[in-house]
Amino acid sequence: MAEWYKLDNAATIVPSSVHGADTRVFRIVCELFDEVDGETLQEALDLTVEEFPHFNVILRKGFFWYYLDSVRTKATVKEENKPACAPLYFPGRRKLMYRVTYFKNRINLEMFHVLADGTGAFAFLKAIVTNYLCLKHGLSVEPDATELASLSDRNEDAFSQFYSKEKSQQQLKAMLGTHAYQVEMEKDANLNSRLIEGVVSAKQFIELAHEYKTTAGILTVALFMEAVYNVMSIRERKRPIVISVPVNLRQYFPSETTRNFFGVINVSFYPGEYDGNFESLLEVVKKSFEEQLTEERLRETMNGYSGLTSNIGLKVIPLFIKNPVINMITRVAQKGTTATMSNLGRIKMHEELTPYIKQFSAFMATPNIQICVSSFGDRMVFGAVSAYSEHNVFTNFFRGLTHRGLSVEIASNDYDNKPSPLDSQQ
Length: 426
What we know:
Low-confidence stretches: 417-426
Strand order of the largest sheet: 10-9-11-13-14-8-15
Number of strands: 15
Distance between the termini: 49 Å
CATH class of the largest domain: Alpha Beta
Radius of gyration: 21 Å
Structural class: alpha+beta
Number of helices: 13
Largest sheet: 7 strands, mixed
Mean pLDDT: 86
Helix content: 25-40%
């Protein structure tokens, strides 16, 4: 392994866009049926780092771009003692870009987005959990095809591999030209992150999607849009609701990278045109997915990330000048989206391990609001994290599920002493 390597093309803007509660840190969680043994978890992490040495890096500033530098620093497992998605990057400090913690029966992996996307991080967490359960219970499992990927394949910058110069900035220009509705809510005074986790039956949710003649992913976006619509005043309905949906590009381009490799589609809906019929909103979302989930459109998104670092003008600008410019562009682009819905899909583990695992969940710190969806067995988890002290959109989202006949289990780490409005959704 090289001693240092470039950030992948999606990660180049991440360090410049860190601000306040937007730490660019995401958390993925495996919840077991038994309490976690910290010492065994440390052994499991040590074994896993040998399989993923490219994650054992620190972030450094170059003259023109950031880069990742390999270190021998050992990641230390700790019992959870920080707010969720707390900062991982501190300029000038030699800190790893991920942390592994545990609390009761939950194993938490938190990662700075420069290292990986959700798919890559889940590969790392699944390896940690596999090693942990094998050590703890004396199990032995045979690696599957995805676990046999070479280190070079895992560490590949897939954006560079599939990049072409054509139509490289179309999506960015569209986002910069859109002023979407922004959810305005009161924030925590200390910007502490509040986790909200809702669980439904995966089987029942898929059945509901089939009743609407659509997929679980499309239904989730439509329900999320409905939840946002229901917090808007009549005056606010002049602006479009825009839901950003990350897409795993490994489904369209052959790659086994565990670094960032995702595209984004933006689904827009104009509330002023809404007739109150959910099916009409759903049709808008369906059509948007059909138009944008094509290899050609996703390649344009991929080229947008790669085009940024390939731009000759940007290449020769020193980082201390580049940083505020990228930060400004990022903030303007963020006004082009209302919220983000990230669907990480069905998580699969070895059959021998499944009796020990209750569920998986995911959370992403963002400047606005984001919901992450993951499924394991029959447990479909909707995870959200934000510095907002109010939960109106998520309350509406879960009410939309219960209104359609689904039972929802809800948990939260709300810091307020007063009862959470989510408690009534049990």
